[in-house]
Amino acid sequence: MKMYFLNSLSAELQTKWYDFWIRCDHAHAQQHTLYAEIEYAKGRLPIFMYGTQDETIVCVGIFSLSSVNILGHTIDALCLRGFAFDDLSLLPEMLERIIKYFESINVGIIRISPYWYFPEADQVINILHNAGYIPYIQNPVLMERIKGNSPDKELYTSLIDISKDDQDILYSFKRSIRAEIKKLGKYDITIKPIDNLHDANIFHKFYSEMCDNRNMIKPTIKEFKTMFENILVKGDIGILLGAYHNFKFLGGMWVLRNKNYTNAMRLVVCRDRITACASKNFGLTPCLHWNAIQWGKSKGCLYYDLEGDAREVKPSHPMHGIYTQKLLYNPIRKARINDHIYVCNEWINQFHEFQKMYYILKRKINKLHFLR
């Protein structure tokens, strides 16, 4: 097997990459070549990795390098929900080549999260651990509070089977969800793809305000604009949906997809605006999900990923409201591989751990200032 690490791809290679990506059962949208532009917008440097066997592509991955350099070392090489591959027999060699390359260019940490679901993913986990990869915890404080999301190998999410016809999908939901979807026409609310930057910026404005209020990380305007212009407006591997009443924005969500899965990535609803034109009890979120499901079905996807866990928890649990809402869709609770890292340089890893805790503390302080 041959492995290649490039700063850019020719038109011919982009076509071959796409041909593999669209056929691969374990390729997330974030491993599409277009996603490299978003990494550029974040200030990171994308590296296109692909491997061939008998001149046929067998794996692809976009690794982005941190712009932070410590004593001649780049902090990390990050591969979002990837890299993409189907052939497990080749994985040990792929991992070995990846480690060798990034060690050669002085990267401190390699972080990957192959898009595989359990129990199929058990074999991947064993190979990762044998290669020296260990589980990565993005936020140890939050992980301690959210029991059930294992802090080692797995991350739970909630899937809806959309391979069935619309009636069967609707009747798999709880009655309250079906009722909200039916109310959409009653209130003269329209949900449609956002196809211009002006309306996209309105979505970003309200989503950013929600992130500030909830102390969440938000995409910069540059990152979002790049995402919109390269992916969402084209409507192939992603779409931005907006809900309107008399041309007034009420909420929206952006959605990505791969061969089999449609993923609900970001969502915002403007509660005050909805109350003014409909009812304070009207739920727009189910309507946005339903439209995203329709888009995913039109692309041939088999599952809709609500992105995140859904299970019974005590009212005191920090995620009680979100989990409870997702349970109304009667989703399939499924675990996929969590992020794993390979530590090339322990000093860089320790610096990175300190950096993580610093940002967590900074966000907590910002939240306290907001609540005052």
Total count of helical runs of at least 4 residues = 13
Dominant shape: globular
Mean of pLDDT: 90
Note the main sheet: 9 strands, mixed
Number of strands: 16
Second CATH tier, the architecture of the largest domain = 3-Layer(aba) Sandwich
From the alpha carbons, calculate the radius of gyration and give it in angstroms: 21 Å
Low-confidence stretches: 139-151
> CATH homologous superfamily of the largest domain - what is it?
Gcn5-related N-acetyltransferase (GNAT)
From the N-terminal CA to the C-terminal CA, the straight-line distance is 59 Å
Q: How many individual domains?
A: 2
> In percent, how much strand structure appears in the residues?
25-35%
Q: Please state the structural category.
A: alpha+beta
Q: What is the assembly state of the chains in this entry?
A: single chain
Give the CATH level 1 class of the largest domain.
Alpha Beta
State the helical fraction. 40-55%
